[in-house]
Design brief:
mainly alpha; 3-stranded antiparallel sheet; 4% strand; elongated
Length: 891
């Protein structure tokens, strides 16, 4: 199999089968070139330590100055080791003239040889590199102490390069403190995705990005794994399928890991590894439970220190996982040697995870044991908490792990299926499952009926809210709060959770009917309660809708709340949740209203990517209305009209009227007017009910229509109720627009004083918030010029408006907004969300349940795709692209 390190799978230069192609790793060469007096290369077997060092020596032209000493496996003979060192040093050009030969003898002492070497090398003027490969194989403490003596006292011109599978007990703390120690570890030797692609190409293998990504994820950049995969893929009839299915059970990988890792462990360690291989992550106490022994934490720590494919998941090193390929091998060995124990191990693990509050893992292990009853009860009991924690995707994954027959027979699982269909965007399927769950609830065991009732009420509330059915939301909310006060709910700690959910959903429903005076207290109470009880997902949802209400009064304050909601979403990984779309729409709408369409565009795009119109018709109405406004601001009236028509269609999916449908219809009328389609506008107006025609939004659009028809008198008639305060205001743009159209109409009627007064009022309303959109939609340069001559109160605002009308745009944000070089993957986006925080790489890894090296890899890819080199630059770039919320310091 070659050297114990697996140098045939090199990390430095990898030979191409049957050809001379190589993969060069210049970055590692540069680090070795600039290394200190002592360099330690510590990494698991197969990481390519040997190949890296050999290829570096060749590339650097050090063949005459490098003494290479391969340490034999289990080396316990100090004399043999030191004779090898002397022989290697004498083969170097500088050493041949200084190091005296030594002959083996029974009484030859290692200490004497070390002292003699120090004396011989004292006048060494040229650098010499002493490379000790597999130095971990030194089995004699005495030899290690002698080597430590040589390292500490040798002249600076003698450089040491120590390749090992685990950290050495050589007292290297002194050179580390003095800056004379360079360390290359497994993370440094791990191949990047680009290097993996180059390696495969050198072997004549071309893979698609998806298959390459899966292979890279499975191997985690491990050199031997990639090399073995390349050898197997060369000439394979279906390389894409092979790459997708590649695992540690593949013959060549299994043989390598068995020989180099598993077979080297004692029986206690081997038992722990096999029995804990059923886990995705393992701790010491859990390992002790599965093995029936003790000292599991110590064993795991020692395995991690020995680079035995055990990866710590947190800074405290209390949780670990196994390298993907190593875990595959361990699971295969467990099935081969103890197939009857697998189910019991999963059951024990499920009980432990459930007892320690790790619900998701408890359900997964119950499913792995095919204990569907236990898995169903665990999921049903903890579903409210999972949902309220923003874990809809995890719930969907867990539900998909049940066989159809198990789900259909359990009323609780049917209710959860209804909620899942709702989350996936199928309202009709959600209603069907909810009906089936209601019917099945009567036959639920007596001890489970209270839980079933809570589930049904939660799902009913969510469905009613997404349907826009305010009466049903109110009814379900009351029922849910009653369920929250039941003894069972209180016992499970759900009382306040359910009350917060009911309050926030009631506020959302009231918002949809423009009952802001009722929505605000409900949302405020719900958000306050959610914050107090530690439910950030509910808090985030409430904040998003509070922002949507606030933006109806002030773009600045609404955007501020919207950013707070987005920042909370980014902190917890909820940027793809429906409520996030509301926050994005709020920010996009506010920037559009302020006449900044280019800055609004990234936010509107994020809203469009996140919203699911068929599942959340009200959110769909809003996002298309904002898109339409954005296109109007750009002068793309036909595109705006198309967006408003989609909004109107989605409004038809709502059970109850939503105020945004009327808003969208008003903007649709204005788009028709701007396109010169006044007859179509009249027809659309005739199709509205009397109540809609009395709304301020419609009256303002009618005024624009009448002005286009050269009937300013009719325009003032339409605007009168909007200006006397008898109709509610639902946006700053609408407020300013009403007075601006009044000014234009009065000017056309020759009433200069009234026109002046109305324009002054419009400017008064526009200036605090920078509301510029109405002046773009209804240009009145003559009016503004006359006003500027007579009054100076709004000189700066008028100058900005006139600049816009002259074709100039507001000053752009200081960060450019070119798109990323490549689209970001879901994994990269998850890591990106943590970059604005103060979390370190290990802490981010712990949050995401991945290794710190995986996080480092994603961060490097993010830098490459965003065209940045540092974390702060990446955050700023992502904010400019709308991938992260703008910084609160730049407001």
């Amino acid at each position: 199999m070659g050297p114990a390190d697996g140098s045939g799978f090199g990390a430095g230069r990898l030979a191409r089968p049957g050809a001379g192609g190589v993969v060069s790793r210049s970055g590692l060469f540069e680090r070795l070139e600039a290394s200190a007096r002592v360099t330690v290369v510590s990494a698991p077997p197969g990481s390519g330590k040997t190949a890296l060092l050999r290829s570096w020596i060749g590339a650097a032209g050090l063949a005459e100055q490098a003494a290479w000493v391969p340490v034999e496996r289990g080396e316990r003979d100090p004399q043999r080791f030191w004779l090898s060192v002397i022989g290697a040093l004498r083969q170097t050009t500088p050493g041949s003239a200084l190091v005296r030969p030594v002959t083996a003898a029974p009484d030859l002492d290692g200490w004497a040889i070390a002292e003699r070497l120090l004396k011989d090398l004292a006048p060494l003027a040229e650098p010499v590199w002493l490379v000790l490969d597999d130095v971990h194989e030194l089995g004699s403490d005495e030899t290690r102490h002698q080597l430590e003596l040589l390292v500490m006292r040798a002249p600076d011109t003698l450089r040491f390069v120590l390749a090992t599978r685990h950290d050495l007990r050589l007292g290297l703390h002194r050179p580390r403190l003095e800056g004379e120690l360079t360390e290359l570890r497994a993370a440094d030797l791990r191949f990047s995705l680009a290097e993996a692609r180059e390696l495969l190409a050198a072997a004549g293998v071309e893979l698609g990005e998806s298959a390459l990504g899966m292979l890279y994820e499975r191997t985690e950049g491990w050199a031997a794994g990639l090399r073995l995969a390349a050898l197997s893929l060369a000439g394979h009839p279906d390389p894409e399928r092979f790459a997708a299915e590649f695992s540690g059970s593949e013959r060549t990988v299994a043989e390598y890991l068995l020989a180099e890792v598993l077979d080297r462990q004692n029986e206690e360690v081997r038992r722990l590894l096999l029995r804990t291989s059923v886990l995705e992550r393992v701790s010491g106490p859990l390992a002790d439970l599965l093995t029936g022994g003790s000292g599991g934490e110590r064993v795991l720590e020692e395995l991690e220190e020995a680079n035995a494919f055990v990866v710590p998941l947190d800074a405290a090193r209390s949780w670990f996982r196994y390298h993907h390929l190593f875990a595959d091998l361990l699971q295969r060995e467990l099935r081969r040697t103890a197939p009857g124990e697998v189910t019991a191990l999963h059951q024990v693990a499920s009980g432990w995870f459930a007892g320690h509050g790790f619900t998701v893992e408890a359900v997964r292990h119950a499913q792995a044991a095919q204990d569907w009853g236990l898995a169903g009860r665990l999921l049903a009991d903890h579903w409210p908490g999972l949902y309220l924690g923003g874990q809809a995707a995890t719930i969907h994954e867990l539900l998909s792990g049940f066989p159809a027959e198990a789900s259909a027979a359990d009323a609780e699982l049917v209710a959860l299926a209804a909620a899942d269909q709702l989350a996936q965007g199928s309202l009709e399927e959600a209603e069907r499952y909810l009906t089936l769950a209601e019917l099945g609830s009567v036959s639920a065991p007596a001890g489970r009926r209270g839980q079933v009732h809570v589930l049904l009420r939660m799902v009913g509330l969510l469905l009613a809210r997404q349907r826009g059915n305010l009466p049903a939301v109110a009814e379900e909310g009351q029922l849910l709060q009653a369920a929250a006060e039941a003894p069972g709910a209180a016992r499970r700690g759900l009382g306040e959770d359910l009350r917060a959910l009911a309050l926030i959903n009631l506020g959302i429903a009231e918002y949809g009917t423009a009952r802001f005076e009722g929505a605000e207290p409900h949302l405020e109470q719900g958000v306050t309660l959610a914050r107090r009880i530690g439910r950030p997902y509910l808090e985030f949802t409430g904040l998003a809708y509070q922002a949507a209400i606030e933006v109806s009064r002030s773009y600045t304050r609404g955007a501020e709340r919207g950013r707070r909601a987005v920042e909370l979403a980014e902190r917890h990984g909820w940027t793809d949740e429906p409520a996030a779309s509301i926050a994005y729409q709020t920010l996009g709408g506010a920037l559009t209203g302020q006449g900044r369409p280019e800055e609004a565009e990234p936010w509107v795009q994020r809203a469009e990517r996140t919203v699911r119109p068929d599942a959340e018709p009200a959110a769909g109405v809003r996002v298309h209305a904002v898109r339409g406004l954005l296109e109007l601001a750009r002068g793309r009236d036909a595109d705006a009209l198309a967006a408003f028509r989609v909004a109107e269609r989605l409004g038809g999916l709502l059970v109850a009227p939503h105020y945004l449908v009327t808003v969208a219809r008003a903007w649709l009328l204005l788009a028709l007017v701007r396109l010169g389609e006044t007859e179509q506008a009249e027809q659309a107006l005739a199709g509205l009910g009397e109540q809609d025609r009395d709304r301020r939004e419609i009256r303002t659009a009618v005024a624009a229509l009448r002005l286009a028809q050269d009937d300013p008198r009719a325009a003032t008639t339409a605007l009168a109720p909007a200006l006397d305060g008898s109709t509610p205001v639902t946006s700053p743009t609408l407020h300013v627009q009403s007075y601006l159209l009044e000014a234009i109409a009065r000017d056309a009627l020759g009433d200069a004083a009234a026109a002046e007064h109305a324009l002054e009022r419009a400017l008064d309303l526009a200036e605090p918030d920078g509301v510029l959109l109405p002046f773009l939609l209804h240009p009145a340069p003559g009016l503004l010029e006359r006003h500027a001559r007579h009054r100076t109160a709004h000189a700066a605002l008028i100058a900005e408006i006139r600049s816009l009308l002259a074709g100039r745009t507001p000053a752009p944000s200081p960060v450019t907004t070119q798109p990323p070089l490549e689209p970001l993957s879901n994994s990269e986006i998850r890591v990106l969300r943590y970059l604005p925080t103060n979390l370190s790489v290990p802490e981010i890894a712990s949050e995401l349940y991945v290794s710190r090296n995986t996080v480092k890899t994603h961060i490097q890819r993010l830098y490459a795709k965003l065209g940045t080199h540092r974390r702060g630059e990446a955050v700023e770039r992502a904010r400019a692209l709308g991938l992260l919320a703008p910084s609160p310091r730049r407001r």
